[in-house]
Design a protein that fits this description.
- By secondary structure, the protein is mainly alpha-helical.
- The protein has one domain.
- 68% of the residues lie in helices and 3% in strands.
- It has six helices and two strands.
- The chain has a two-stranded antiparallel ribbon.
- A hairpin with a 2-residue loop joins strand 1 and strand 2.
- It is globular and about 45 Å long.
């Protein structure tokens, strides 16, 4: 298995690429209406699914603490001030609470654009 730091870097790069593809900028920031059908929302869902189902350590699914370590690393690689900023996004994804997830993603994308 890859190192958690490498996984975090890869996922952060994928999120940044999705933000660029969706053409979010400081002057064209994210909103609930434009995030609902965005590449970046899809990327967050894909990452959440991978953390919950695909990655394993010693043939066991990732523990919650291991997932949090990866999420902190993603936040750090994205330059977010709060290393726990991604926790609500991925909690919403695992609960299939897409309304909350969209709001959380809007906030994260706009934080990324401030950097």
């Amino acid at each position: 298995m890859a190192k958690f730091s490498d996984i975090s870097k890869d996922y952060a790069a994928r999120i940044r690429t999705a933000v660029t593809r969706d053409r979010f900028t400081k002057s064209a920031s994210a909103s609930i209406s434009n995030v609902r059908s965005s590449t970046v929302l899809s990327e967050f869902k894909t990452i959440a699914s991978a953390l919950n189902h695909d990655w394993k350590v010693d043939d066991e699914p990732l523990t919650e603490e291991q997932k949090k370590t990866i999420l902190r690393g993603i936040a750090e690689n994205l330059g977010l001030d709060d290393p726990t900023a991604l926790f609500p996004v991925f909690k919403s994804a695992s609960n299939d609470n897409h309304t909350d997830m969209v709001v959380d993603v809007v906030n994260i994308v706009n934080d990324i654009l401030k950097k």
